[in-house]
Write a structure and sequence with these properties.
It is built from 16 helices and 18 strands. The chain starts with a strand and ends in a 15-residue tail after the last helix. It is globular. The longest helix is centred in the middle third of the chain and has 15 residues. A five-stranded antiparallel beta sheet has the order 4-5-9-7-8. The chain has a four-stranded antiparallel beta sheet with strand order 12-13-11-14. It has a four-stranded antiparallel beta sheet with strand order 16-17-15-18. It is α+β, with helices and mostly antiparallel strands and 420 residues long. A hairpin with a 4-residue loop joins strand 4 and strand 5.
């Protein structure tokens, strides 16, 4: 019979995983469960909830560093940082509303209002980053160090509390994006940075995906330090909670700048002048900018009540984005929008029996990109690859890494790939 264990400290977690290794029992590692519906369904023998290991254990604002237990809610992290006018620079997304219908097994506003929120450990282990990634890097680039328990039942650590910590292997980069398949972290140390004084967003109205891609690429090549670049087609823009965006009655291309007030104002005006070659422009100031980019960050265009479509996260060269959007939105019921200056395509389409995975992956393969099925019913995630299939050499390398940390395969078995 499956049991749920709730260790309160690293020693209890070590003893638990050592027991599981000895007994050959598999375990599912869970924080709040906000991303439990991402990845292949697991049939683990037991569940290990890390909710007993939560809370900020070190915060040094002058040193721009914070350490917290893995199950610490992002909301708690952000509240503490806000008191010192600081932030997580990689802009961690909250996919609770997006995944609510899959987590709960039902759609609707009630499921979304009760959606679990993410934790620091979950965001780092999944390497999730928001729109600012194009300027500031991914979550792994702000991940300084950690303590963890491996699948061997052994406590280990890597990194430290400074950026230039070069002792030993940089295991932080390996842990970020491993989805809990290598080790269970017991604390996480991240770099934090000051909140920009002002945020402004230049809007281009009416551009199609090809024109938007051209405008975003041009903006990214400019000296204006763009920290967000996204495109929403007219139907998705009109559903925005930001009135100035919804009221445009057309597709919206958005370019964000941040920094001291005079600098942000100057760069926003310069971007509007540049965008005027493509069409009419508008501008969002700080409050509306923050609200709009939160919608993009959390994929809110596809998290509306009643939307039960499958959602794909596609990564490809920005110049290939219009090709992907054009080809894949030809599927009946499909919609897409762009983030990361076109390097990230969020695609929603009818789930059907296989989320159109062959068509999606064929289109992405032609761009040398990769595709992750981010939201879909369990039966679909069980039968098709969720993460991008790996060529043989990469599979062998992944298996060797897994064996080094978790030789008996007890941690989150099969969450990413059936054979890892």
């Amino acid at each position: 019979m499956s049991e749920t264990f709730r260790p309160d400290n690293p020693d209890q977690l070590r003893d638990l995983l050592a027991w599981a290794t000895t007994e050959g029992k598999t375990v599912e590692i869970v924080g709040t469960g906000s991303k439990r519906a991402v990845g292949r369904p697991m049939a683990a023998d037991h569940v290990v909830e890390l909710g007993g290991m939560a809370g900020i254990t070190l915060y040094e604002p002058d040193e721009l560093v914070m350490t917290a237990s893995p199950a610490t809610p992002i909301a708690e992290i952000e509240a503490a940082l806000s008191e010192k006018n600081q932030q997580l620079e990689f802009e961690p997304p909250d996919y609770g509303p997006l995944l609510a219908s899959v987590n709960s097994g039902q759609g609707g506003s009630t499921a979304r209002s009760n959606a679990p929120t993410g934790t620091l450990g979950g965001v780092i282990s999944c390497n999730l980053s928001g729109p600012r990634r194009i300027k500031s890097g991914a979550a792994r680039d702000h991940f300084l160090g950690f303590h963890a328990v491996s699948g061997r039942g052994e406590i280990f650590k890597s990194g430290g509390r400074v950026v230039k910590n070069v002792t030993g292997y940089d295991l932080s980069k390996l842990m970020a994006g491993s989805w809990g398949t290598l080790a269970a972290m017991t604390d996480v140390t991240v770099k934090v940075l000051p909140v920009p004084e002002k945020t402004r967003t230049a809007l281009l109205v009416g551009a199609d995906s090809a024109q938007a891609a051209q405008a975003m690429i041009q903006a990214m090549q400019s000296p204006h330090e763009v920290s967000g670049a996204a495109w929403l087609p007219a139907p998705l823009a009109s559903a925005s909670g930001v009135d100035l965006v919804a009221g445009q009655k057309g597709a919206v291309t958005a370019l964000r700048v941040e920094g001291p007030g005079p600098s942000a104002e100057y760069r926003c005006n310069a971007l509007r002048e540049m965008l005027s070659a493509f069409g009419a422009t508008e501008e969002l100031h700080s409050v509306n900018s923050i609200a709009f980019w939160r919608e993009v960050r959390d994929v809110m265009p596809f998290a509306r009540p009643g939307d039960d479509r499958a959602v794909w996260k596609l990564s490809a060269p920005p110049a290939s984005a219009p090709q992907l959007v054009g080809e894949l939105t030809a599927i009946k019921g499909a919609e897409a929008f762009l983030d990361w200056s076109g390097g990230l395509v969020w695609l929603a389409l009818p789930a059907g029996t296989d989320a159109s995975h062959e068509a999606v992956r064929a289109a992405v393969d032609r761009t040398t990109g990769h595709a992750t099925l981010f939201r879909a019913p369990e039966e679909i995630r069980r039968t098709i690859p969720v993460f991008q299939p790996q060529p043989g050499a990469k599979t062998l390398l992944s298996q060797r890494v897994k064996a080094a940390f978790d030789p008996k395969g007890i941690l989150n078995p099969g969450r990413m790939y059936a054979d890892i």
